[in-house]
Amino acid sequence: MQICQGLAPTLTGSFADQAGRRPAYILCFLIYIISNIALALQHSYPALLVLRAIQSSGSSGTVALASAVAADVITSAERGTYMSITSLGNILAPSLGPILGGVLSKYLGWQSIFWFLAMSSTIFFIPLALFFPETCRTIVRDGSIPASGWNRSILNWWISKRPHTRPVLIPSASTELALQAQLPKRMIKPLSTLSLLFHLPTSLILLSNGLIFASYYAITAGLPSQLRSIYGLSDLNIGLSFIPMGAGTLLSATLNGIIVDWNYRRMVAKNRQDIEDFEVEKARLGVAGPVTLLAPIPILLYALTAPATNPPPLALTLTLIFTISFTLTVMYNILNILLVDLHDTTPATIMATNNLVRCFLGAAATALVHPCIQRWGVRATYCGVAIVVLSVVPLLWMVWKWGLQWRKRG
């Protein structure tokens, strides 16, 4: 599932940057809704696996699209706040999913999970299809070029057709064609995301973000079994134990965007240099750097308090989970913002590449964490996770030191 979740956005991201956000959103939602209905009606295990892969392909594309829309309409000085908000769904999902899934499966059966997903996504999809405007600058530039076809929402179409009580400048069909002809004709390149894996400093940021998210997945994947074996919690209580993780994520998104935007404006006002010479890497990593140094500490404490004989208080474990979630989410969000800063003309493509790296490393972490715990124990495994997070420090230092030079070289 995570492999498909990583591969699908490489297609939808490039498609969204060339064909527009609206067609990409409509495609992703239709795939997701139909696959959820099929999953709710399915009783064959092989079919469940295939449909789950298709379902993840539909949902994963929206992660890149949300960041792309934020990049379309928000300036760099405000990008931190809005990018943090758009990342909430992606980050909160591992925390809220077990809670909602546990309640639904206990009282209504596992099929109710997919019915809930189908209905909730349909409720969201209808107003999106009716009212969401096209924001892709390849299609509408700054909004001066009217969208057409699938890129035009029904609301925009209705406004253009209804009579007006006062003169309104509505472009004629010939004018629209002339404006559309001014746009560069760009081929959809599904594999354009792969070229970014070898671009500096982008590749180092992608690797750092992937390692951070893999560490986050290693914690979340191992947590249920630890809570069950150590504290004897039920499935419902295990789901409720993810609330501190969600709270840490929510708090980080709230504070992170404000601080990142403040630091960006401070550096712009201080340096007052040409935008091409502005070291956006230092503006973003000036906040992420200290957090990166602190992030391994709660993971290390989580590892060292793992019981040999007597378990630690549950409150202590949940407090550490909250702190881990907060620090890792801060790092993840800031690196997402930096990636969009560096590739603001193709935000969906860069976020799709980010999703590819994140999902493959996350899948590896999820697959390896339980065998590692069985072989080396909880302490050694999560000490290793702390070392992985610490390894991000030299990678980000290189970006901070030489990022601008690498960008100028192209």
Over the alpha carbons, how many angstroms does the gyration radius reach? 23 Å
Helical segment count: 18
Average residue pLDDT: 84
Shape summary: globular
| CA(first)-CA(last) distance | 35 Å
User: What's the name of the CATH homologous superfamily of the largest domain?
Assistant: MFS general substrate transporter like domains
Low-confidence stretches: 165-183
Percentage of β-strand residues: under 5%
How many domains? The number is 2
Helix/strand order, N-terminal first? HHHHHHHHHHHHHHHHHH
Q: Helix fraction?
A: over 70%
CATH topology of the largest domain: Growth Hormone, Chain: A
How many beta-strand elements?
Answer: 0
Structural class: mainly alpha
Task: Report the sheet with the most strands, covering strand number, pairing sense and barrel closure.
Answer: none
Keywords: Membrane, Transmembrane, Transmembrane helix
Domain Major facilitator superfamily (MFS) profile: 1-409
Transmembrane segments: 24-41, 113-132, 196-219, 239-264, 285-304, 316-335, 356-373, 379-400
Membrane topology: Multi-pass membrane protein
